[in-house]
Design brief:
The structure is a single chain. It is built from four helices and seven strands; from the N terminus they run βββαββαβααβ. With about 210 residues, the protein is an alpha+beta fold. A five-stranded antiparallel β-sheet has the order 4-5-1-6-7, sandwiched between helices. The protein has a two-stranded antiparallel sheet with strand order 2-3. Helix 1 runs antiparallel to helix 2 and helix 3 runs antiparallel to helix 4. It is globular, with a radius of gyration of 16 Å.
Length: about 210
Amino acid sequence: MAYKFAKKYVKRKQHRLQGFDYSTPANYFITIVTEGRDNLFGSIVDENICLYEAGRMVLNTYKTLVENYECGLEPIIVVMPNHIHFVLRKCCEDTNIQTFIQKFKRLTTNKYIEGVNKNGWKHFGKRLWQRNYYDHIIRSNQAYDFIVNYIHENPKRWSYDAINLNCCNTPDNIMAKVIEFDNIYNISTNIQTGGYADPPLQQHNN
């Protein structure tokens, strides 16, 4: 498979899903990448992610933030060496997805700076995270299952991950499969999102 979208984790024109209310309860597949795709959070050893202290901080910060947001559901997340994937299962209407991600970035950046100053964590450049984040509104149960499995299996396929600076020449194409599910299954089987179709991956500035 050829995982094409990750090469666009550099500056691009902002795209918003026109007409979609991002405060609507829905399932979102989110990816946030470190600036420069630096490996700051861990390393892959024997197809498992071995998190540094910084990576554990990122994971714990997310779990704390998401506890009320997802109504106590078990978080679906993987922290990789230079990015995170998660499914944000929004079940309340009083928090906007952009507000959630802005808060997550702010908290993790402040904690990372503290780790640099007190514990000698690796320095980052202008910012910890890329300015943009990427989301896809999950519109079918089949796509949901595929994405959750991809998240769990991501460390095993690190060498095929296009966000990896040392990725192989045949990277995974997760979004092509998700779009295939979106196209095959009609709205009656879709998870509620408001009924809008979006491009393969939305990119947002915050």
